[in-house]
Amino acid sequence: MSADAGDPGAPRRAAAVPAPAGGAGEAAPAGDAGEAALPRLRVAYFGRPGTFSHEVASRRFGQGADLTPRRTISAVFDAVAGDAATYGVVPIENAVGGPIYDTVDRLIRREGTGAELVVCEELSLHVTLSLLGRRGAAPRRIYSHFVPLKHCGDWLRAQYPDAQILEAESTAEAVERAAQDGEAWAVGNKGAAAIYQLEILVPKLAVKGENVTRFFVVGRTAEPPPSGGRTLLVFGLEHRPSALVAALSALGRYGINLTRIVSRALPDSPEEYLFLVECEGSTQEPSFKEALALLEQHATGVRSLGSFRVSQKYE
């Protein structure tokens, strides 16, 4: 991505995009003097208002974009593919919960998706979990998404042994249930407290390890950085010994470092797998192009799902 491009992957001057670092929440200049104001970005994000996806989308794109929630990850991809949104913000991995397979599956799918989307940017959020509810009697039910419950479920059971610990579709849905149920609390984003008129009972819950969630910004058009950044690849393998070793060695031969690898069985052929591989570098680099040419000799259906920059972690 060019140094002056605040918009991850859209054609130049297509919209006013906030700077990804240092100026979060502030719109980029609308253009040269006398130039008409640029159209607002349309950004779809996974979940409801008050989720961590909503927080990341808000902090990345700020008030210069129209943010629209989508109930499923597939709906985010469909919105971008159908031009109902310029970009989509979806989670890809949590430090404890692991890969978000709904996102992985939509990235590697080609058939029936309309437009093939690419990754334009990677964002990350240091997640702070809060306990939300109404002060008074101890809760009989505590709701949250399964990933936060992996982080603090043991603490909740120790502190509130008489409460049921129940899973919700998202942290925002958990908070909404708590708002509708006078005997329930929720674990979620403290920003959701104001939305659903709850109190922040415990601002920061203790968690196991560092709780970081990574997100992809997906779009229809890629603008890879001339160097640096990361690239997302997908490929298959033939059924033979050391096939994966040979494929990854093709990247290693050119000094390309892997940062993520996920395997998924094909729905119509469960004995065959596709591999989603994230690695350092850009498809614009000559050495990276040579590595891809060598990879194609050891793997099948090699394709890039975008070279992209990795932006700062939001605290």
UniProtKB/TrEMBL annotation:
Pfam families: PDT. GO terms for cellular component: cytoplasm. InterPro entries: ACT-like_dom_sf, ACT_dom, Chor_mutase/pphenate_deHydtase, Preph_deHydtase. Residues 232-310 form the ACT domain. GO terms for biological process: L-phenylalanine biosynthetic process. PANTHER family: PREPHENATE DEHYDRATASE P PROTEIN, PREPHENATE DEHYDRATASE-RELATED. This is prephenate dehydratase. It comes from Sorangium cellulosum (Polyangium cellulosum).
